[in-house]
Amino acid sequence: MKTKMHRTVLGAAALSAFAFAAPVLADEDAELIVNGDLSIVTKTAAPAHLSDSLDEILSGWRFRNDDTQVMQMDDFDNPGMLGADVGLDQFAAVMGSEGKSCADCHDGPESLSTVRATYPKWNEAAGEVRTMQMQINDCLTNQMGAEAEKYDSAKMLNFEAMLAVAARGTPVNVAIDGPAQSVWETGKELYYTRFGQLELSCANCHEDNYGNMIRADHLSQGQVNGFPTYRLKNAKLNGIQSRFKGCVRDTRAETFNPGSPEFIALELYVASRGNGLSVEGPSVRN
Ligand code: HEC
Ligand code: HEC
Fold this sequence. Notes:
By secondary structure, the protein is an alpha+beta fold. The chain folds into two domains: 182 residues, Orthogonal Bundle (Cytochrome Bc1 Complex, Chain D, domain 2), CATH 1.10.760; 88 residues, Cytochrome Bc1 Complex, Chain D, domain 2 (Orthogonal Bundle), CATH 1.10.760.10. The strands form five sheets. Strands 1-8-9 form a three-stranded antiparallel β-sheet, with no helix packed on it. One heme C (HEC) binds next to helix 9, helix 10 and helix 11. It is found in: Periplasm.
């Protein structure tokens, strides 16, 4: 039950382009248990910083239809797990001029099991907020003498899927205070900025209208705890910032690129809106 009023204040252009309708599908009360034994928190109390706008936070899994939900309940049916397996192979493979593999310095993905839940994260030595991909690129280039990977490349998403599996079930807990705070504030501002001809902000869809239908899609809160996400639509793993790009493009706006300072800040902010949900990737979405 949503107890807070949903403010449906949309630009005139948005109203003519989209009609938000009451939901018809999806069992919002379903519970996600993976492989019959790993309980995933897909619904919990909103973190304190959201107390003015949301009472509870919900994983996108709750908004998908039964068939899509079921695919994520068993690793054999979850096509995203193939990426995690390839990620493991990549982890053991020698890359770059130093003749090193990730495994030469990191015991295994288990030794990195806190990463998925806590990134984006402030890196003191570099003096910047780093996403997982920025950190992996730092290891590739500065530790291994290898080429940097493009943002959201298949290789990067395989690494991310592997790190998500290592962290699966642990609560998302990104830090928003201390030195990361100003980046977080920038991300928050972007989240509430209306973009494009449709004059829609992330919040107009994912905060004011989640649970409603938009065209044929059941709108979720746009959480990122499930990333990387295997989308049935394009049959591959998808990254967080590429998803942001698609959403901004849908408002008919010029968009930022994955890896841009704007999307790094937005990723930190959106991740913090999911503090308390479980890491659930690789997830399955339509
Ligand atoms: C030559 C050693 C070396 C290699 C090879 C290496 N790393 Fe790292 N990695 C480091 C060091 C050093 C850190 C920083 C540790 C710290 O500050 O906590 C780090 C940090 C990380 C972190 C963040 C850990 C955290 O707790 O925040 C991740 C994720 C990571 N590496 C992934 C990888 C991956 C994936 C590869 C292979 C592509 C790789 N690393 C290869 C040395 C290495
Ligand atoms: C016009 C409405 C609209 C706007 C504006 C919008 N999105 Fe979305 N977004 C969608 C739809 C539709 C989906 C697919 C269904 C769902 O998961 O909500 C989606 C999906 C997502 C997802 C995937 C969620 C998951 O569980 O896989 C994320 C993350 C997301 N959006 C973030 C954002 C961010 C950040 C912004 C602002 C830059 C934004 N969206 C703006 C409509 C919108």
